[in-house]
Amino acid sequence: MKDSNIQSCHLGPEISPESLIQEHYFLYLLKGSMKAYDGHKNYEINPGDCYLARKNHLVRYTKLKDNGSFEKIIITFDEPFLQEFFQRHAYRVQAPNKQDAYLSIEQNKLIKNYIQSLAPYYSGDQKLDETFATIKREELLLILLKSEPDLANIFFNFGMPHKVELETYMNRNFRFNVSLKRFAYLTGRSLSSFKRDFQKTFGVQPGQWLKKKRLEEAYFQISQQHQKPSVVYLEVGFEDFSHFSFAFKKEFGKSPSTLIPIVRT
Question: Which UniProt keywords apply (predicted)?
Answer without folding.
Answer: DNA-binding, Transcription, Transcription regulation
